[in-house]
Amino acid sequence: MNGEAWLFLFAVVVAALLLFTMIFFIIMFSDLECDYINPIDLCSKLNQFVIPENVGHALLAVIFLFNGAWVSLLLNLPLVGMNVNKIINNRHMYDATEIFRTLPEHKKECFFKLAFYLLSFFFYLYCMIVGLLADAPKAKPVMRN
After folding, report:
1. Global pTM?
2. From the centroid of its chain, how far is CA 120?
3. What pLDDT is recorded for position 124?
4. Which of 60, 74, 112, 124 lies 20 to 30 Å (CA to CA) from residue 20?
């Protein structure tokens, strides 16, 4: 396997992890709406995944930058920028006292990220397959007499 195939194999795995993280967030927000979980427990459970999710996505963008995968990098930069902006403005963690007021915003953001990670997963999968096919040995034509 060449470097491009390994890069996108790693990207597929990271995108799958980020996808499952967003599914977990959406399930937890739905549990809060139905009063199956209290706001303090919700925030303590979700806050432990916020920084790893942002770091994982930023790491993926940095790897794309160093490997010259410009299309993948450009597709990821807006979401990385949004995450960096939230961290700089100290709005990246969930607050138990504000969660009911900001719940529609958080759900909308999670659905947006879910759609982004889902599309990214299939794009990276496609790029990985293209990289594997580019590395495959070419079949020699058989000459018949």
Report:
1. 0.87
2. 7
3. 95
4. 74
pLDDT tens, residue by residue, 11-60? 999 999 999 999 999 999 999 999 899 999 999 999 999 999 999 999 99
**Does 135 have pLDDT greater than 80?**
no
- From the list 3, 110, 11, 2, the residue with the least C-alpha distance to 62 is 11
Write 126-129 long-range contacts (CB < 8 A, 24+).
127/4, 127/8, 127/11, 127/69, 127/72, 128/5, 128/8, 128/9, 128/11, 128/12
Angle at the Cα of 50 (from 49 to 52), degrees rounded to 5?
Answer: 65
